[in-house]
Write a structure and sequence with these properties.
2 copies of one chain form a homodimer. By secondary structure, the first copy, chain A, is α+β, with helices and mostly antiparallel strands. The first copy, chain A, has helices spanning 2-10, 13-20, 25-34, 42-48, 54-66, 88-111; strands at 39-41, 70-75, 81-86. In chain A, helix 3 packs across helix 6 (88-111). Chains A and B meet through helix 1, helix 2, helix 3 and helix 6 of A and helix 1, helix 2, helix 3 and helix 6 of B. Chain A binds a DNA duplex (30 and 30 nucleotides) through helix 4 and helix 5.
DNA sequence: TAATTCGGTAACTATTGGGTACCTTTGCGC
DNA sequence: GCGCAAAGGTACCCAATAGTTACCGAATTA
């Protein structure tokens, strides 16, 4: 059982999940992954996620950029254009995320009861 | 792109992740999965998770029980004994969770920079 | 002249996360 | 008898976070 303690302390899951386990991050990653071009503009994402306020989306994207999961490219035009895409790290997360989504689809009724 | 919208709306990830994506749930699942007997008592878990207060652990376990990921067995003794274990649904989540932990170990340095 | 687009930020409020203290019943040491 | 510890929680309170609304800038459109 002492081994579990060591394993527990070394487990990265908390630090890692705290980077994208919030209310909106996973949905952004999902959308960027599904996009034809692999690129989405701020207001394109916003049109999909209509229940997410502008501020929360902005905050979410900033976090994902700081975690190096999403790349932010600014074009100095007027009106401004900002394009978001997955980084290589972000792309490497997608198979795991897809597996989680599949699990969710299969077990939704067992887990979400109310 | 209209397809993405439909896919997005049907995506269960938010409801599902909200059930165990919080600060402590994944660690509890991790510990229950690693336990020799598959069963842990309240204060056994607490001794592993020393940075989680009694109240938060209690709340976390209650949520996991309501989501049918964890089974709670009460023995009417004095002092009381309460044993926690993974349900079948909870067990079915573990491979996905393990994949996530492995991803975290591999990409920790890229994602957690500060 | 007024309205709209685009990607935000500032100021505020509502909701949640989390800590401390306390409860219950029983057995143990003295 | 007297006080204390153990078990698994809950009540009360405060701080941190989630989220809403209003607003910004310059430029095109109506």
């Amino acid at each position: 059982m002492a081994d579990i303690k060591a394993e527990y302390l070394a487990c990265p899951i908390r630090q890692v999940v705290s980077r994208f386990g919030d209310k909106w991050s996973l949905l952004v990653l999902f959308l960027l992954n599904r996009s034809d071009t692999g690129v989405l503009r701020f207001n394109e994402i916003r049109r999909f996620m209509t229940d997410c306020s502008q501020k929360m989306l902005s905050q979410t994207l900033k976090n994902l950029e700081q975690s190096h999961l999403v790349h932010r490219e600014v074009y100095p035009e007027v009106p401004p254009r900002v394009e978001y895409s997955l980084t290589d790290t972000g792309k490497s997360l997608m198979p795991v995320l897809t597996a989680l989504i599949d699990w969710g689809k299969e077990h939704f009724d067992e887990v979400v009861t109310d």
